[in-house]
Each structure stands twice: as C-alpha cells, then as structure tokens.
Amino acid sequence: MRSPITTQETNIHPAPDTPDVKAVLTGIADEVMRRYRELPKDFAGHVKVGRGASGSETSRIDRFAEDAVLDYMKQEDIGLNVLSEEIGFVDNGANRTLVLDPIDGTLNCTHGIPFFSVSLAVCTERMGDCDFALVRSLTGSGDTYFARRGGGATLNGHRIAVSRYRADESVFTVYDGRDADPDTDRVRNIPSRVRAMGCASLEMCLVAQGAVDAHYMNCSNPRRMIRIVDIAASALMLREAGGEVCDLEGKKYDLSLSLDDRKNFLAYGDQAVKELVLRS
After folding, report:
1. I need a surface site. Which of 52, 99, 128, 231 has the fewest CB within 10 A?
2. Are residues 155 and 23 in the same domain?
3. Residues 6+ apart with CB under 8 A from 60
C-alpha cells in the first residue's frame, strides 16, 4: 500500500462543513449525471456543433452538459456567475463565479472510454482564491471528490491525502498528445510507470488521493495548454490533500478568470517529485 503523507504533516485542519455550497455543487453534478445517463445510446455526442468561447470546437455532448448546468442553475435560482468552456463568462451580478467544465475528457466520453468528469469550482477573482470544489466522475458509481478551503479534501465522503514518493512503485500521468513538448520524454523516464488518461481533473484527483505521484503537462501549442475551467476544482482538491500545483518554472500555479489564460503545469504530492521533474 502506498504511504500517505498524513494530515498532520500537511497542516490540514478540518473545519465544519458548509452544506449550502456543497449541496449546490452536488445538485449540479447530480443533474449532469442524471441527464447524461438518460441519453439514448445513439446520441451522437461527438458531432461538432460550433465553436465555444475559447475558440475550440464544441461537441454536442459538451453543449448538452453545459445546458444541463445552466438550466439547473436557473431552475434553482443559484446566485453565481458562470465561466464555462462553451458559453464563456455569464455575469449574473454575483460576487463569486462557478468555474465549470461540463465534460472534462470529452474525447474519452465520445469514444466510450470510462474516464471523464464534470468539474465545478467556486472562485472570486482567480483560481487561487477558489473556496469550494467538486469533481464528479460521470462513469461507474459516480465517484465524487469535494474540497473546501481549509477543510481538506474527500472522496465519497472519506478524507484523502497525497502519498510519499517511492521510486520503485512510482506512477505519473502525463499529457501525451501530438503537441507534447519533447521534454516530456525526459519526464517519462523518472517514474516506474507512466499513464496518459486524457482527463486532467480526474488525473489530478488521483494525485490528491495518493494513487499516483504526479500529473505533468508540457504542451508546445499555446492553444492547447490548460485553462482555469479544466483544473480550478482539482487544484483545490490537490492542495487540500497536501499536494501542490506549479508552473514549469516552479512557481505556484494560478490563472485568471479568463479562457485566454493558459499555462503548462506540474501537479505533485511530494516535494521530491517537483525536484526530480523541474531540475535543470
């Protein structure tokens, strides 16, 4: 069994739940999952139906899931602004913003690969001030990760923590697309095993729960680098579990509430991983 870094060592101090925000995020995730599971088997989710606010192509399944969230928020009168991959920023006159990726891992979803999620984060001005986060796997039993700033992180209600790095049983997940920077080859040689899963939110949650040691993304195409909608929720999850996210210069990772702000990154549980990956 992998050795966790305990909550005492990571200075996590549990605080009382805030059921209102947690209930809101859970309700949104429940609605997306319910509607997704009711889709007919011949639903052509892969079909492109336009371009989103970020400029990338929008799949039918992305728009379907985003509409599910927006409909639910209107129905339940949820007082948050929205920043989402397809619709962009929706100003509802609120002080806080729901940072949303309605389907993270779209390619997995449309190819029938059971590794994709809905990612929800509540921020004020940027990713670094995220207070609440929920990531829900939309496959299987619907594993749910939740974090509140200062309150730790949980998986299905049970506390999670990152693991210590042990070279002989280490596992990294990496971005391995056609635009992967050549330095990715060097990083692949650090751990004992490497996986490319195609869903950054869930891959970072795996780091948070101590299942893998790091998630590394180094993309040579600026338009394919990660955005706040992709990892705002899982970044809080990882930090509350005792890990960290940094850019590839080693600085603490942060993004503005904009779809135009994109960066490469390293998510890790043990400081030893950062030193191994980012050493010159």
Report:
1. 128
2. yes
3. 43, 44, 45, 46, 47, 48, 49
